[in-house]
Design brief:
The chain is of the alpha/beta class and 357 residues long. The chain has a domain of 209 residues: NAD(P)-binding Rossmann-like Domain (Rossmann fold, 3-Layer(aba) Sandwich). Helix content is 44%, strand content 17%. The chain contains 13 helices and 13 strands. The strands form three sheets. A seven-stranded parallel β-sheet has the order 3-2-1-4-5-6-10, sandwiched between helices. A three-stranded mixed β-sheet has the order 7-9-11. Strand 1, helix 1 and strand 2 form a beta-alpha-beta unit. Helix 6 packs across helix 8. The termini are far apart. The structure holds nicotinamide-adenine-dinucleotide and 2'deoxy-thymidine-5'-diphospho-alpha-D-glucose (DAU). The site of nicotinamide-adenine-dinucleotide has 31 residues, from helix 1, helix 4, strand 5 and strand 7.
């Protein structure tokens, strides 16, 4: 099969390709990525010369470029990862999120609709997030039936893209599957997200900025478990269905940061208390969702999926990966990201230090 993967130079897309390209020599993988600030081709070094892998730089929101890729490669399956993915950026500048997440998804769906009618064996796998459901209180979990209620421009744009993907199935019969997943962590994640940011700042003795009081809860999943679940749904899940993916690993942000301090200390021989002293409370994220948790009964019952990695083992692996890949880190942190940080976060005020909570 010819398999198009959008956003394959980003965090989850690159982990997906690193797993699937060597495992499936019978399939050809075409990675379509615009190479935004969040991309790093160094994440694909292990597979870039594989005979069953091709990279194409293109923008999913540009119909002409997408048509060229479809005409050249005639993909049978599409795994759609490409997105603007960072909530804080969506608050500072939502336009790019509408452009890539909404228009880009629409352009891809149109490219498939124009070519796939009457052809069997096609699949559009839309990769989405638990954030489309908004926030939970202290109890409960999102099911596949929970009403959409997005809080941020990022989650609103992902919600819109989910609706388009499902509408193309209902209206045009396009073979669509949707997966919504909880927070991922692991190797190759861009260091603006909580876990890699805290690992690197702890290593470098920089402040560890915790939003609000650090009591918000996320359900963490090791990235390879997400990738395996996506492949399982694509190969064995039902067309037109949505499947939830999640780690069942709910943690308060502050507890995650404390664990990272402990692990970085153990791996580098430093004093964990000196790293915890770097914790700094900063202004909360506007519209900050309090808690996410995923009910994954459907994927477990129907497809037998289980995450393999525990939070403890996955986080230690992740800390080690960042310790051992400083060149990768320097590459992604140079250039556009450095300038963006300077523009948006220079002089950001802290409002408290960790009191050992
Ligand atoms: P990422 O930001 O690390 O990577 C996104 C990739 O998409 C980058 O390589 C970027 O260059 C590419 N891209 C962005 N705009 C593009 C465009 N217009 N055309 C082509 N390529 C473009 O994101 P990620 O964390 O790997 O997330 C991948 C997908 O998974 C997203 O759809 C996201 O919503 C979803 N998701 C992420 C998480 C998470 O915790 N990271 C959890 C659930 C779902
Ligand atoms: O839930 C899935 C989503 O997880 C994905 O759809 C998104 O693409 C992905 O970015 C992630 O969104 P979050 O907003 O949950 O992730 P982030 O790493 O930005 O933040 C995790 C939590 O940590 C959140 O409650 C905000 C907090 N935080 C984050 C940063 C970057 C801090 O306290 N300090 C920080 O510096």
């Amino acid at each position: 099969m010819r398999i198009l993967v959008t956003g394959g130079a980003g965090f989850i897309g690159s982990n997906f390709l690193n797993l699937m390209v060597p495992r499936h020599p019978e399939h050809h993988f075409i990675n379509l990525d615009k190479l935004t600030y969040a991309a790093n081709l160094a994440s694909l070094e292990a597979i870039c010369d594989a005979p069953n892998y091709t990279f194409v730089q293109a923008d999913i929101a540009d119909a002409r470029q997408v048509d060229q890729v479809f005409d050249a490669h005639d993909p049978e399956w599409v795994f759609h990862f490409a997105a603007e993915s960072h909530v804080d950026r969506s608050i500072l500048g939502p336009a790019a999120f509408v452009q890539t997440n909404v228009i880009g998804t629409f352009v891809l769906l149109e490219a498939c609709r124009a070519r796939w009618q009457g052809r069997v064996g096609r699949l559009f796998h839309h990769v989405s997030t638990d954030e489309v459901y908004g926030s939970l209180g202290d109890t409960g979990a999102f099911t596949e039936e929970t009403r959409y209620d997005p809080s941020s421009p990022y989650s609103a744009s992902k919600a819109a893209s989910d609706h388009f993907a499902r509408a193309y199935h209902r209206t045009y019969g396009l073979p669509v599957k949707v997966t919504n997943c909880s927070n991922n962590y692991g190797p190759r994640q861009f260091p603006e997200k909580l876990i890699p940011l805290m690992i690197l700042n702890a290593l470098e003795g920089k402040p560890l900025p915790v939003y609000g009081q650090g009591t918000n809860v996320r359900d963490w999943l090791y990235v390879e478990d997400h990738c395996e679940a996506i492949w399982l749904v694509a190969t064995r899940g039902r067309v037109g269905e949505t499947y939830h993916i999640g780690g069942g690993t709910e943690k308060r942000n502050l507890d995650v940061v404390h664990t990272i301090c402990q692990l970085v200390a153990e791996e580098t021989g430093r004093d964990p208390d000196s790293l915890r002293a770097l914790i700094t409370y900063v202004a909360d994220r506007p519209g900050h969702d309090f808690r996410y948790a995923m009910d994954t009964t459907k994927i477990r019952r129907e497809l037998g999926w289980e995450p393999r990695e525990s939070f403890e083992t996955g986080l230690r692996k992740t800390v080690r990966w960042y310790l051992n890949h400083r060149a990768w880190v320097e590459q992604v942190r140079s250039g556009e990201y450095a300038r963006w940080l300077e523009r948006n976060y220079a002089g950001r005020e802290a409002h408290g230090k960790d009191a050992g909570r």
